[in-house]
Amino acid sequence: MPPAPRPSEAALYPAIKTFLEAQGFEVKGEIRGCDIVAVRDAEPPILVIAELKLGFNLQLVLQATDRLRTADAVWLAVPATTKGNDRDRRAHRLCRLLGLGLLAITRTGRVEILAEPEPYRPRPNLPERRRILREHVTRRGDPTQGGITRQKIMTAYRQTALDCAAALRPGPLPLKTLRAQIPDAGTIVQRNVYGWFDREARGIYRLNEAGEAALRQWPPSATT
């Protein structure tokens, strides 16, 4: 009998997403290095970050303490065990001391709260907080599952670049026409971060083969 497939961090994502959505958050995966970002409307917005790992370890704790500077609350999420570190009361005390929440996800997808995030507040990193919130707001839908590795992330910037590629697919266009459809088109096309666009003439751009390949890889319906 072949061995059972090794669980992945991404397998934890649906349960945590459901857990946070039940609390009124809008949840999206893989934003600026965070496995899960959840935002609830308020003034200012309430920002919660969750980090996924296959076991409770020092690396997870160190990663989570970095997130404390940008988020209102940080959760650690690991698969539930019977005798693992997630069951160690010292781990629970450590989370409370650092102001971290700890969640364990059972095989059936049930979420257990092992430690609630406490109100410990380090010095805030407001610029990074603003970048996370901006990415969450501008990214359309939830196109990237939290916890993935070795895959390109569908950021809001990439979504807009693909919009420009789709607009140029029928043929070259002046930037003025492109901007009328996509306000950020000038910056996207001129910076050409992904190498998808060529300058046809002054102020006129066309899609190249790399851009065509990108549209085949990410059809418009698959980017949200």
Find the structural class using helix and strand composition: alpha+beta
Do you know the CATH topology of the largest domain?
A: Trna Endonuclease, Chain: A, domain 1
- Helix fraction, binned, reads 25-40%
Radius of gyration: 21 Å
Number of strands: 9
**Low-pLDDT residue intervals, each spanning 5 or more residues:** none
Terminal-residue CA separation: 39 Å
**CATH class label of the largest domain:** Alpha Beta
CATH architecture grouping of the largest domain: 3-Layer(aba) Sandwich
Number of domains: 2
Strand order of the largest sheet: 1-2-3-4-5-6
| Secondary-structure element series | HEEEHEHEEHHEHHEEH
Describe the protein's topology:
Blueprint: H1 13-21, E1 26-31, E2 34-40, E3 46-52, H2 58-67, E4 73-79, H3 89-98, E5 101-105, E6 111-115, H4 126-138, H5 156-168, E7 173-174, H6 175-181, H7 185-191, E8 197-201, E9 204-207, H8 209-217
Parallel strand pairs: 3-4, 4-5
Antiparallel strand pairs: 1-2, 2-3, 5-6, 7-9, 8-9
Question: Would you mind describing this structure in some detail?
Answer:
This protein has 224 residues and is of the alpha+beta class. The model has no long low-confidence stretch (mean pLDDT 92). The protein has eight helices and nine strands. Helices cover 35% and strands 21% of the residues. It has two domains: 9-138, Trna Endonuclease, Chain: A, domain 1 (3-Layer(aba) Sandwich); 156-219. Strands 1-2-3-4-5-6 form a six-stranded mixed beta sheet, with helices on both faces. A three-stranded antiparallel beta sheet has the order 7-9-8.
